Amino acid sequence: MELEEDGDLRLPDDAPRLCSVTVSGGTPDAWLRFSASRKSRVKASLSESVNCFCCQLYDWLIEVDSKIETGGHTANAFAPLVKEVIAYDLTPQMLEAASRFIEGNGHKNVTFVQGDAEALPFESETFDYVTCRLAAHHFPRVDLFIQESYRVLKRDGYLLLIDNVAPEREELDQFYNGIEKERDHTHHRAWKKSEWIRFLEEEGFLIEVMIRYEKRFHFPDWCDRVQLSSPERESLTQKILSAAPFIKGYFNVEIVDHQVIGFTAESVLIKAKKGGKNPSQI
To answer: CA torsion 55→58→60→65, rounded to 10°?
Structure first.
């Protein structure tokens, strides 16, 4: 991996291929804000292989910017670092928005494909990486998404995933998924950390990294992003206000004058490697 005279990357012919899987359902957060600092980080990493650099890049993805209201940020982030990106989403509207954003940034190695994350229309062992950011909680059959990710990855390829997760304790799980579902009908389930470990390992993935981090939600913005009506917002407010004290304490719910100001949930970043054999095929 080398730098052109203008400071941009010149990638080798065998640079990785990446599939970025998303889903429409509320306003997407951005994984990464590109700026001049990106090039300085790239220059500092030229001694690394492309694969190692992508792993480093993934560490940055925790820095979420929830103010950007377009799609395609994952594909946009990886486009300068890999040979080819497939941006994959269920709806044409999201793909159109992503296309305007990514192509507007000058990236020409991104192809936009519409389809279901539970039935990827690609040949087996096609991709070096599959990424999925804040989307899996919308999938009715997350097991099929994991199976399909395993199938389309090359051996030793990586699934890179970020998603909101539910606490392990059942009452907290029910509360969190309950308010998410009431807020957004496309929400299916935020899985527990233990469930993600089981799902991935049962399919044959080897989890190399799992990082848990807290995520603060500003309640008015959280409601505005899915355009809740006043009655819907009031219903959700009352559900949170009436929760048991230990639940409000766990989620650090902030209440001022009987109004919910915010709460804290959690997300995980997972880096999982495709192993040599799928246990279901042994």
So the answer is: 170
